Amino acid sequence: MPFPNVPPFSEIFFERVPVLHGFQIAIANYLHAERQRKEKNPWGGFLWRRGVRRLTSFNAVECGVFTGSSLVACAKYASESGIPLKMIGLDTFAGLPPLSEQDKLLAPEDAVYRSQTLFTETSRAGVQALVDAAGLTDQVELMEGLFSQSLPLLEERKYHYVNIDCDLFEPHIECLEYFYPRMVRGGVIFFDDYNSVNYPMAGKAIDQFFRDKPEKLAQLRYGDDAPNRTKAYIVKY
């Protein structure tokens, strides 16, 4: 069953719903900024109020795609809302990378990923097929490889939304160091694993990065409290 991009949501999707809500917050901030930009020009404001809205590209990234369900749900929501979207999905498409020393220090002693590679049930071809089936081929681009390999290859641009869902310590730091300075004012960085019991290194990495930054973490949960249902995000100042 695919993750729907609009309600109602069955309970099996409760953990994923906050990522869609974070995406919607980013779109709302983007539309507000677009209108403010148009209002600086009298004709632009006039046309906006009459529904003529030549929008700039909404740039989004998902760092940690896995099977692509959240990526496609967010992209489909933007497409159906008339948002000109450019979304990039970054993943190894081969499971978690090797643990760093920091990961080994912070991982629970009984964590399965200490002894085996998790999240291997994916492939770039499989996610691409999902993207194509949703009619999103022109809006979504997939890039395969470690973040240390793919981030330097990205075209220089500003971003409105980044979903970081990569579990481990160093990948969080790599993504934040790259995307944080490239976020637009009002842009959203969403953290799937901030409160994760299985991957406590994610929250440690996020806290370390933001200890000298002005932004404060906000939290989202859909449904009753349960492990890993509460997600976090920041809005860029």
Automatic annotation (TrEMBL):
Transmembrane intervals: none
Superkingdom per UniProt: Bacteria
Keyword terms of this UniProt record: Methyltransferase, Transferase
Gene3D superfamilies listed in its UniProt record: Vaccinia Virus protein VP39
Keyword Methyltransferase: yes
Keyword Transferase: yes
A Pfam family reported for this protein in Swiss-Prot or TrEMBL: TylF
GO MF annotation terms: methyltransferase activity
GO biological process: methylation
PANTHER family given in the database record: MACROCIN O-METHYLTRANSFERASE (PTHR40036)
Name of protein: Class I SAM-dependent methyltransferase
